[in-house]
Amino acid sequence: MKFSSYVHAFVLWALFCSPVSFAQSAFPSKPLKILVGYPAGGPVDVLARIYGMRLSKSIDQPVIIENKPGASGSMAADQMVKSPSDGYTLLLAPVTIAIISSLIPKLPYETSTDLQAVAWIASAPFVLVSHPKLGFKNIPELIAYAKNHPGEINFASASAGGIPHLAGEMFSAMAGVKMTHVPYKGAAPATTDLLSGQVNLMFDSVVSALPYIKSNRLIPLGVTGAKRLPLMPEVSPISEYLAGYEANGWYGFFIQKEAPKQIVQRLNQEINQLTKTAEVDQLIKSNGLDPVVTTPGEFAAYFASEIAKWRRTVRSSDIKAD
User: Given 240, 267, 294, which residue is the final one in a domain?
Assistant: First the structure.
């Protein structure tokens, strides 16, 4: 055999045996794991099982859901970060993953660098509601009153440091008003006190607030997303009055930072294809969420912007986690 033939054969062999080629051809060759930092039955767990069952069929491998609750989801994130970089361990996390490093400075991992974005799957704006006795009908009326009565208006949230709390603090800062935060141990007692008039306002999920809005027990003042919602098209986004205001809940998949890009791309494609199906689309919407389809790069950019935004809010408001 001529020398050139040996070279040609060696190149083909090297390409075939290279890590990239092997990963592309072999993945997935064993079960995948989805880590969830919250108890079974919660919204993150529900989404994980919606995707896990269907992803298992599409990749022809078992997908195991492992619940590892604790420390606002950071225990599961830490386990994922410390997992092998072979692409077989995923983390499904809510927006809290972008906030936690601002509330708990000494995490065992670095949020902005140790998590590789895979797929953003769902988003959900909140609605700012008030008790009818206040008489507010919209955001300008609320801002005008709050400016003339500093500290008199209060707003409830299910916990200190959560998105509804941060949404209120960001609203106060951008509107130039002073509102008092009243934290509760859960959404149920906060809602009870809002309905009775013990507190004035609350940033609530659309699904939770809608029955009370329809029965006129709560007044919707604005939504925290960038656009009007099909469920309440008459309610304006807060951003129409405070340019750039946006405070959404969201959910997305992450993977170990050194996982191969071709595996990340494969997982992104598989997850996006599931999100686009009529079945998954309807399941997401039935949980009060909007389906989202992005590339890994688009999700990574959004994730970085969320970390920066909520870090500014936490620092400027001197917020402490429960």
Answer: 240
Please identify which residue in the block is written with the tokens 């960038």.
226
**Full-model pTM:** 0.87
Q: Is 96 exposed, middle or buried (0-12, 13-18, 19+ CB in 10 A)?
A: buried
Q: Do residues 161 and 169 lie in contact, with contact meaning Cβ atoms separated by under 8 Å?
A: no
What single letter denotes the amino acid at residue 202? M
Question: Which residues are CB-neighbours of 223 under 8 A, at least 6 positions away?
Answer: 125, 126, 127, 128, 206, 229, 232, 235, 236, 237, 238
Q: How many CB atoms lie within 10 A of CB 318?
A: 7
Q: Which domain holds residue 268?
A: 16-124+248-317
* Number of other residues whose CB lies within 10 A of the CB of residue 211: 10
Asked whether residue 10 is assigned to any structural domain, the reply reads no
* 7 assigned to some structural domain: no
161-204 pLDDT, tens digit each: 999 999 999 999 999 999 999 999 999 999 999 999 999 999 99
Pairing mode of beta strands 115-130, 89-94: unpaired
Would residue 9 count as lying in a domain? no
Looking up residue 93, the CATH number of its domain turns out to be 3.40.190.150
